[in-house]
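Appendix B, record 7
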Amino acid sequence: PDGIIVDIDREDDTDSYEIDVVEGEHLIELQVDFDGALREDDREGDDERVARAQDATVTAEDAINQALELHPEGLLDEAELDDEDGTLQWSISLDDADRNDLAEVDVAAN
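C-alpha cells (predicted):
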C-alpha cells in the first residue's frame, strides 16, 4: 500500500521498531521485528498527523540518510515528523552501537 511514514521508534527492550504510517486519512501503527515480521497494532484517524504527512516533501528515508551522512556510525533510534513552532521538520535520534545516545538531528521536512 501507498503510505507515508511519520514516526519510527526503536523499542528499548526488544529488537523491533514501532512505525506509524499515514495511509489515506488513517494512521496505522505497525510493529516490525528485526527478523522482518510485521503486524498491525492499531488503525485510527489522526487529522493532525495526516495533514503533516501530506505537507511533507522530504521523506523519512531522506531525512534519516541526511542524519547518517553527518554521523555515519549512528544507528536509528527514532525519526519523527513534527511541527516545531510552525516549521515542519524531521527529528532524528541516533544511537551508537551500544544503544547510547549519539546525536539529535533536525531536518527540514519541506
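Remarks on this record: DSSP finds two helices and seven strands in the chain. The first strand starts at residue 4 and ends at 10.
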